Amino acid sequence: MAMELRALVLLLLCFPGLQGQTPETQRRREGDTLYIQCPYTPETTRQRTKYWCLPLGNKQCQEVVRTYSESIQQSHDGRTKIKDDPTTKTVSVTMADLKAEDSGTYFCALYKSYYDYPRLRTISLNVFKELLQWELDTLTVQCPAGSDAWCRGQADCTGPVRKQTQPSKQSEIKSLQGTVSLQYKAQGALVVTMKNLKARDSGVYWCAQGVERTRKMEVVLSVFKRTQKLSAKESGNVSVQCHYKIADYETVSKAWCKKEEGEMCNVLVTTRPESPAGNSTARKRVRIQDDTRQGIVTVTMEQLQVQDSGVYWCALQGGSGLVRVEEVTLNVSKALPPGGFPGSESQSEEILLGDSCNGNTFVILSVVLLILLLLALLTSIALGVRYYKLLLRTGIREAQDTSDRAEGTAQPGSTGRRESSQDDSKGSAYINLDVKSHPNPEDPLYCNVEPSQAARSPRHVEYAVIAFNPSPRTGRE
Fold it and tell me: Contact, 38 vs 24, CB < 8 A?
């Protein structure tokens, strides 16, 4: 196998023309865009007309669109465009808003003669339909002309078939199983109908032609089941509504069952005249009602218990078993006692309450911390203002004391200075002493005057007599 691949690569390298003959697979979803570039060699530059073709015969071309120059040309429907760039020697093709019927083999080609269109590049285009359906819906697909089989996967095909009428409604109701029918219409078109779809019908399908099962059109089918999720309290009630198509399932019996292990579903109640086997307490608490005018099945479960939690089905009940209409997941939680808290048996409730309390505690602590922070900030501001005012007052007092001392007040033990508002030569000098402490009366007090401070020819001499009142002394007379 490896040798064969190597040989193929060598052939493509040695003979570039073979690249146009080998198809490349391109897969696109409906509505997408295909963009292809087809390079050509300088030798083919003189062939100005370039084509985007579908195969026709051996070397002929069924023209989709063509270009004569560098201008962009488009097809009649405007979805396909082609452009030739002689500078890069490349032909560009764009197919927009793809449809399933666009699937097929395409190629870029040069015009050589009416019967000869040398290929530059070949594309096998597969445009698939993406279909989304609900369970029990009906899918109808019209295959391209020439299709005679409906296949799934690689080789699981149905057909070819002869033209036939659809099975009657009555036969469908009896079986309640997914059915596939093939019909031929005018001009040989094949119509595929899939009824009673189920989730397991999801997959890749395709319309095929001939014994070789040539793929004509591909369909990607996704089937979803209808679901509901309900919650209820113990001893309470719950009501469920399930819808169905009246035209298809009006006369079919409806059932309500609880899903067990595996594929088994235990029927609790049914619209059939006969009751389900057994007469358990659970069945007595379940009622079902079918409104065939609106296509609604209503199921009511009363006096719920915790063990009623689980997966249930609204189902069609036929001779071949149950067919799911809708899946319901029910969760029954234990009820709280009046005015109390859950006991140890309801741990899930305790966890929920604990989480709530923890959340409230966190909020309260956050608020308290915020208030304390604001109080601390206000206190700091108040203390700062008070300290600032204290500094101002202290500065004023120091200034006043300094001015008082500047007038000539001397402290004991310090050198007295003479202060006078007059000139030294015009008057006498005075020395004021401010003695704040009480010295011993027996100690002498001296006052020294420098010669430079005394007048040279004083007219008057004044003396200062300083007297001290002895302060009472303890233990002395």
Answer: no
| The residue to which tokens 């001397």 are assigned | 410
> How far is 94 from 97, CA to CA, in rounded Å?
10
Q: Residues for the chain: how many in total?
A: 477
Q: According to CATH, what is the number of the domain 16-126?
A: 2.60.40.10
On the question of a common fold for 135-224 and 227-333, the answer reads yes
Q: Sort strands 23-29 and 119-134 into parallel, antiparallel or unpaired.
A: parallel
Asked if residue 161 has pLDDT above 80, the reply is no
Per-residue pLDDT tens over the stretch 238-296: 999 999 989 889 999 999 999 988 778 999 999 988 655 545 666 789 999 999 999 99
Residue corresponding to tokens 């009820």: 335
| Mean of per-residue pLDDT scores for the chain | 76
Q: Are 82 and 96 in contact (CB under 8 A)?
A: no
What superfamily would CATH give domain 135-224? Immunoglobulins (2.60.40.10)
Average pLDDT over residues 70-94: 89
pLDDT of 323 strictly over 60 = yes
Fold (CATH) for 227-333? Immunoglobulin-like (2.60.40)
Q: What is the pTM of this model?
A: 0.55
